[in-house]
Design brief:
The structure is a single chain. By secondary structure, the protein is mainly beta. It has a single domain (2-184), classed as Ganglioside GM2 activator (Ganglioside M2 Activator Protein, Chain: A, Distorted Sandwich), CATH 2.70.220. It is built from three helices and nine strands, in the order αββββββααβββ. It has helices at residues 2-18, 107-111, 119-123, and strands at residues 21-24, 27-36, 45-54, 61-69, 77-86, 96-104, 136-145, 158-168, 171-184. The strands form two sheets. It has a six-stranded antiparallel beta sheet with strand order 1-2-9-8-5-6, covered by helices on one side. The chain has a three-stranded antiparallel beta sheet with strand order 3-4-7.
């Protein structure tokens, strides 16, 4: 299950990084929000300055993002996953929590794993993001993004809300909130 959750998170992030709206096999993904969880800006680890770039000539999409880490994060890093799936309208009453408080330990091992779907993300950091994570600024630059990751999970028309809480030895060190919407892609007829 841990591997599947990391895969799902990677897929959602890859879609997020692909651009504000990306066409995916007759689906379009619209990013409504990415950032620190509200009221959590004082946590030691902060992700910010997300910048997507799309080259119209080549069709290639890349992204950059920064992480500021104020404290040493040990090798005891874990992430708690929470996923909500809402109907495509985004009506809050339609949201159903599909993953609740699922804790994955030993995240440091996943971070350095090779030939995984998240490996290109981890390898794009100019200073390697490895445990223990030292204080400083980490930047993922020109990370190539492919929306093909959506082929690995059954994603229908929906609004997804994701919250990732990072813990170091049970102390909360980060919180990331992501809201994306997957809608049918309408093709113009001539």
């Amino acid at each position: 299950m841990a591997r599947e959750l990391l895969l799902l998170f990677t897929v959602l992030c890859s879609v997020l990084f692909a651009e504000t709206a990306v066409d995916i096999r007759k689906k379009k993904v619209v990013i409504h929000n990415l950032g620190q969880c509200k009221g959590q800006q004082s946590l030691p680890m902060v992700w910010y300055d997300f910048v997507p770039k799309h080259d119209e000539k080549t069709g290639e999409t890349t992204a950059s993002i920064k992480v500021k880490n104020k404290n040493v994060v040990s090798k005891d890093l874990s992430i708690m996953f929470n996923f909500w799936k809402c109907d495509a309208s985004g009506n809050p009453d339609s949201c159903e929590q599909v993953v609740k408080d699922y804790l994955v330990n030993d995240i440091c091992t996943y971070m350095v794993a090779k030939n995984e779907l998240w490996s290109p993300f981890m390898e794009s950091f100019t200073t390697p993001l490895v445990c223990p994570i030292k204080p400083g600024l980490y930047e993922a630059k020109d990370m190539k993004i492919s929306p093909d990751f959506l082929n690995y999970i059954p994603v229908g028309d929906a609004l997804w809300k994701v919250q990732l809480d990072g813990f170091d030895k049970e102390k909360k060190v980060s919180c990331v909130s992501l809201v994306i919407q997957i809608v049918p892609f309408l093709v113009k007829r001539n």
